[in-house]
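We modelled the chain as a single entity of 85 amino acids. Its sequence is:
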Amino acid sequence: MNSIDFLYYLIIPVVWAGFTVGKRAVNIQIVRINGKKIGFGTTLKRYILAGLVYGVTLGIGLLVFSLPFYSQLQPPYEMFPPECT
């Protein structure tokens, strides 16, 4: 993400009372659990937590995706049979 994306997701929800362009189009508002408006700190925490969740789930997905390829690899000692050396 570039700095414009970062600023969009960080500042727009605070300025527009919990809405972004897409959320306003479908009438979804970001609020705190107690129903109060969000502030800059809440938006920053939400942005960081979302990045961590996306990173962890992407990492798990890549790991699961790579397992079939990993199981097909031969260990180095099986690449050269003993009769060849």
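As a brief sanity check on the tokenised model: The chain has a mean pLDDT of 78. The two ends are 52 Å apart (CA to CA).
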